[in-house]
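Task: sequence in, structure out. Protein: ATP synthase CF1 subunit delta.
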Amino acid sequence: MSTQNLALKVATPYAEALLELAKDMNILSVVTKDLSLVSNILSDSNDLQTYLSNPLISISNKKNVLNQIFQSQLQESVLKFLLVLVERRRITLLSVIIDKYLDLAYKSESTTIAEIITSTVFTEQQESDLINKIKLMTNSQNVKLLMKLDSNLIAGFIIKIGSKIIDTSLYGKLNQMSLYLNAK
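Result:
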């Protein structure tokens, strides 16, 4: 069993428990927003990730740091959840737990997650048009766009929805032409 599969297997019960708690307390959207914030902060701060995953740092110090960073930003139950993860020495799995939670939460709300890789930032109108197109393609009620910039694309964009990839980028078209020409 790979390390990633093991991490997912350990993270899933925590994500499911938090999702049930959020549903029971009727704060699903608040918890989802809070966990997205935590995920963004973690991805922006390698120092925080390193600090939380360091086994030499005491549990109380980790709790203090989390309280200082998140106490005024997160709903109380989300902060308590983070502290439970520290106590149970599962804080190193936080990113995996958040990803699994968001996946489960979006599925329960019938939300499709579309990763958009583009060379330029979309306008609000372009995002709205793309969301409407994806809703039609996937028969979803809600669509969440995860935008990523990649200057290598030159022009156009790539859409990833689950295992489906739609590549409208100039870079992708040039690669297809190159493969076609090299095949002959």
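The radius of gyration is 20 Å.
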